[in-house]
Amino acid sequence: MVKINEDLQRERDKCSFNITELTTLIDGGPDKTEARKERENILISRNDDLSAIPEEYLSHKEKYENAVKNSVILFGLVRKMQEDGKTSVSNYRDVVSALLGSSTTRDGSPLGLHYIMFMPAILNQGSEEQQAQWLPRAWVSNIIGSYAQTELGHGTFIRGLETTATYDPYTQEFVLNTPTLTSYKWWPGGLGHTVNYCIVVAQLYTKGQCHGIHSFIVQVRDEETHEPLPGIKVGDIGAKLGLNAVNNGFLGLDNVRIPRTQMLMKHAQVLENGTYVKSKNSKLNYGAMVFVRVVIVFDMVNYLSKAATIAVRYSAVRRQCHMKEGEPETQILDYMTQRHKLFIAIAATHALRITAYQLWDTFNAVTEELGGGNLDRLPELHALACCLKAVSTADTASYVERCRLACGGHGYMHSSNLPLTYGLVTAACTYEGENTVLLLQTARFLVKTWQNVDTIKLTPTVVYLKTTREAGFSGKWENSVECIIKGFQIVAMKKISLSVSHMQKRISSGMSIEDAWNITSVQLVGAAEAHCRVIILQTFYDGINKVSNTLSPALREVLQQLVELYSVYWAIQKIGDLLQCVSISESDLESLHSWYENILVQLRPNAVGLVDAFDIRDDMLQSTLGAYDGRVYERLMEEALKSPLNAEPVNHTFHKYLKPFMQGKL
Ligand SMILES: CCCCCCCCCCCCCCCCCCCCCC(=O)SCCNC(=O)CCNC(=O)[C@H](O)C(C)(C)COP(=O)(O)OP(=O)(O)OC[C@H]1O[C@@H](n2cnc3c(N)ncnc32)[C@H](O)[C@@H]1OP(=O)(O)O
Ligand SMILES: Cc1cc2nc3c(=O)[nH]c(=O)nc-3n(C[C@H](O)[C@H](O)[C@H](O)COP(=O)(O)OP(=O)(O)OC[C@H]3O[C@@H](n4cnc5c(N)ncnc54)[C@H](O)[C@@H]3O)c2cc1C
């Protein structure tokens, strides 16, 4: 029996609520908790077979080779789960995300894109026949694919992609080319040396006309030998800030021919004679990106809960300085500044989780409507997915970095798992749509909505644009969560309204629409962010209220404290906006700060219980600082001893360089 650190045990003893009750709530029910644990048992059952060398000591090439070995073992387990009927499309998101978040794919997996984008793209954009042809083999990984959209010259502006797919009616084939250096595909995960197929996004030409970008299934390597096929130039793009096991690749195509049936044809088609049949909406071709933006929000929740668990447990174990002379050294968690750094990460994990589920439901509902030919809610889904992807990734990157800093020097160690975690989440600010660009997409939707606010039926997420303008809406400020949400609604409405009026003034004074948009775009990004904050705050508040009656009083109380903490934290962060838009007095401000301090005090005894409830086992957490038993110092030393430098008492460089240098001979 492993001894638990005494401080950590004391924290657990004083937790006021039932930790299992919260874990069950997070998972969505006892059956879901059980299923998750069973999946995790399966995932860690092969841990002994996985390479145990810490990744950070490996070369770029070794990292890749190690990642392939480990990923194959892990995804092999997923295949086994599929065969045993333990996975279905409905729980696939959880299965794959648990796997990608697991210890052995700590720095990403070269097989990830196959599950995250290759298969979803075929599901989303392939006709029924194409799905029947490709998915069965992809599902059991007989073929492995990637998603090749971004090029050396263009990532954001996908209408500007240069790769071409020209239809040849005589052979009924598409001929694919990357005619310039800037048209080389650049970034796709697993493309370097792992996958043998990929979705290539290219400009479609038929009968001499360009019809914009479409997706094609292209085989890049031989299924037996894995050699690149004729006309294919493929390789790894090199070392990156993080995700170094992902094997992101480049791809050049020189007159590569594929059958007509390998253009994904659910929404648009090219007939045998080369006739182009348009999609109902060209943006349906962007469906795979919308799906991934939705799952990224879930992914952020996983990483944030890990970082919070590591930093909170460590802060309970770590003692530094004396708050009062004569008393033992203080647990750093007792410093209010430390709680200020960490508790927001706990609250945000819950806020983002509830919002991610809501977004997932919207995505599924809209996808079903699209299937029936109803495209009405596509713009709202796109606007929602864009801003939630942007804000959840930016916030998570900043909270994870706070958690890392909150662990002092030890947070800088790879073995804490905080640097790698930061590397993973900060990548998400860029991939799948760079965050500023995505916020501008949401702003575009908000501007249009605002311009027609009195004439169109408003969808639920933007109804506040109208209600906030009704007489008496804001009322007198009081320090309550409801009032903060109303305050944020007014801020968002005013930011949108101001951006629109500034743009209109510029246009009236002779500026082009494009220039007016560009000059106003800093405000527009602020408006989109404010809108997103309204959505997260409201969804979190409603989500907790909805389940409140089903909870024990102790858990209800602590969850309400988290909702309060999240709201007050953001009210203080955005106090300038509130002061500008809402009548809030100096004394309101003072009591807002006192309220915040009170919640930090109230939450203190439950901090460790709250992160324990995330129920992340040590095998998944992989952190010297965050393990359940709190043996922080022992683990740090154990990990240090794994450094290859410690394998020999004297390194050969002493004799070769240091000694001659010290003797003045070099
Ligand atoms: C089998 C089950 C499987 C289950 C699997 C389970 C999975 C398990 C999960 C496990 C966890 C894993 C976590 C993830 C890890 C990720 C790994 C890393 C992956 C990274 C991959 C990548 O990184 S892959 C590349 C992504 N690369 C972009 O992301 C480019 C951004 N760039 C744009 O996306 C466009 O370029 C941009 C800006 C919109 C302008 O596009 P554009 O120029 O064509 O459009 P305009 O701006 O002119 O807009 C014209 C009108 O189109 C409207 N509109 C635009 N887009 C629309 C849309 N999508 N839907 C609807 N409407 C749309 C717009 O709102 C306008 O509407 P309106 O006219 O009415 O105002
Ligand atoms: C780790 C990682 C994995 C990836 N995986 C894949 C993959 O599997 N498949 C794939 O196809 N791609 C992948 N990508 C590529 C990714 O999708 C792009 O990098 C991303 O879409 C951003 O595009 P960009 O690099 O062209 O940035 P740019 O668009 O060049 O952005 C640079 C700057 O310009 C600004 N900017 C650009 N356009 C505008 C505008 N219209 N208005 C205002 N500002 C603007 C941006 O805000 C940013 O500050 C990956 C990227 C990373 C980092």
Automatic annotation (TrEMBL):
Record GO cellular component, one term: peroxisome
Cofactor(s) required for function per UniProt: FAD
Domain spans labelled Acyl-coenzyme A oxidase N-terminal: 18-144
GO biological process: one example: fatty acid beta-oxidation using acyl-CoA oxidase
Binding residues for FAD: T150, G189
Ranges of residues in domain Acyl-CoA oxidase C-alpha1: 286-447
Location within or outside the cell: Peroxisome
GO MF annotation terms: acyl-CoA oxidase activity; FAD binding; fatty acid binding
Active-site feature positions: E432 (proton acceptor)
Keywords recorded for this protein, A-Z: FAD, Fatty acid metabolism, Flavoprotein, Lipid metabolism, Oxidoreductase, Peroxisome
Domain Acyl-CoA oxidase C-terminal, chain residue ranges per copy: 481-663
Organism superkingdom: Eukaryota
UniProt cross-references to SUPFAM superfamilies, sorted A to Z: Acyl-CoA dehydrogenase C-terminal domain-like (SSF47203), Acyl-CoA dehydrogenase NM domain-like (SSF56645)
Pathway of action: Lipid metabolism; peroxisomal fatty acid beta-oxidation
Family: Belongs to the acyl-CoA oxidase family.
Designated name of the protein: Acyl-coenzyme A oxidase
